[in-house]
Here is the input.
Amino acid sequence: MTVTLDRIENGVAVLLLDDGQRLLVPARIIPQGCPDGTVLRMTFERDDRETEARMARVRALRERLVERSGD
Here is the structure.
């Protein structure tokens, strides 16, 4: 997916998608030295291992909360 860097203000980058929608992201994830109008390529990658690890942490937290409420 390509996006166009519209501007960066107050630590937020405003990206324009090809369909005209705006996407706001932390400016720190934009490569250094990109002026307004720079076209950037965005990719998303599924991370099943991290997803499962986070779900396991949530399950453990829920179990602890249930145990506490039984006191």
The two ends are 52 Å apart (CA to CA). Strands lie at 2-9, 12-17, 22-26, 39-41. Residues 2-69 form one domain.
